[in-house]
Give the backbone structure.
Amino acid sequence: MSPTATYLVPANDLMAALVGQHDEILRAIEAAFPGTTIVVRGNEVIIDGGDAANVEKLFSELVKLLQSGTALDTVNVVRTIGMIRANEVPSEILTAEVLKSARGRSVRPKTAGQKTYCDAIAANTITFGIGPAGTGKSYLAVALAVQALQAKSVERIILTRPAVEAGERLGFLPGDMLAKVDPYLRPLYDALYDMLTPEGAMKLLERNTIEVAPLAFMRGRTLNGSFIILDEAQNTTAEQMKMFLTRIGFGSKAVVTGDVTQVDLASGKSGLGGIEPILGGVDDIEFVHLTNRDVVRHRIVADIVSAYERHDAANAKTSRRKK
């Protein structure tokens, strides 16, 4: 006889959101747990099948998310199912608010890896966020920087990136040096505008409360009372990385983000790639590795990251055999 569980939804008004329009959420749960049947009667959810215990836990977590004000859709539900299977607690991860943007939208971690990343930034002076595109490395770092500025924990935010050419020549771009590097810094501006509105961000930029500059402009400076984000750090050399890290002054916090699989340096030698063995044992520095499980863009981005990882692993295996 297959296991059976019954979950009692605490309020009738939650049921409609719990099953979704045209039962789409219910169908998504059944598709994720083949061999499990779910029957809704009033405010009871009757679950039958080998995964009954996990599905019951899932419904309990979904109710907690609804009660916290989190809207449910199939993307959120699929993400929550992955957390349940990994023995994580979705209601603790998805309800941890980092910042309420100027538009009133809550910025929250969407995966366990992102929650670990946010916690590491809060607890350490320097945090390295390493992982593939779409894992929210830069976006969450900017959100935490804005939160620190609003809480007056820091006096200013400094956002920087190495201006490394990725298949294009800076010399062919119009304007002076700042105009040439602006496209490289644009993703950081976009995140700022999302948190503060373009008008609010521009006021802080004009006052130099927020500074966005290429990494080369950091040389010779000591950055006190600042929240500093070095983005796309895989495109720093070892010398540039050391230069940046030794700029950090009193009352400052730094976040270094990058994807070691996307190095655009002509030499291929990244200052981010070899930094963990050097600094891994230093107090107040933490390395957080995000994976394809933490990709929060379109589902196909996670699939692309996974496909490249399999391809690289197969090539590495073939290379070892030839040796």
In short: Confidence is low (pLDDT under 50) at residues 166-170.
